[in-house]
Every structure is written in C-alpha cells, then in structure tokens.
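Budget justification aside, the reviewers requested a transparent look at the raw inputs and outputs of the sequence design task funded under Objective 1. We therefore reproduce one unedited record. The lines immediately below are the structure tokens for a 77-residue chain.
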C-alpha cells in the first residue's frame, strides 16, 4: 500500500494493522489467520465475526460481491 506524505504526516501509519510480535505492518491476511512477512508470526482470527453484526443491506452487498467473484473465477473471465 502506498501512502502520500500528507497522510503519513497526519498519522495514517498509526491506523494500520501491525504484527503483535514485531510491530511490522507487512501482513498477509488469509481466511482465518494473519501472517507477518517480517518475522513469520501467525495470528488466528475468528472468521466471520464482523459478518453477523453487519446490517442486512451490508450482508446482501457482500454476498452479491462474493457471488460475482466466484462466478468470474469459475467461468474463467
């Protein structure tokens, strides 16, 4: 991710997720885990925790996005 100098000066870096072990922001997020590229630490996360709390309209939009993405992948577009 690239951040402009003005955003960095305004504290945007403080809002980034970081590794609990080494504080690096070089993270790879996968379904159920977050891995640090710098030190290799892996944190397990609860999958779908935010989905259940989402408003029905947000859930419908997410479901439509996922369905469209799967359709593209399965059709080979």
């Amino acid at each position: 991710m690239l951040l402009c100098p003005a955003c960095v000066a305004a504290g945007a870096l403080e809002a980034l997720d970081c590794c609990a072990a080494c504080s690096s922001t070089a993270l790879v997020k996968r379904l159920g885990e977050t891995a640090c590229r710098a030190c290799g630490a892996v944190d397990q996360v609860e999958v779908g925790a935010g989905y259940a709390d989402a408003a029905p309209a947000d859930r419908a939009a997410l479901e439509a996005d996922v369905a469209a993405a799967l359709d593209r992948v399965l059709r080979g577009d």
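The longest strand covers residues 27-30. The beta strands are 27-30, 33-36, 42-44. Computational costs for records of this kind are itemized in the attached budget.
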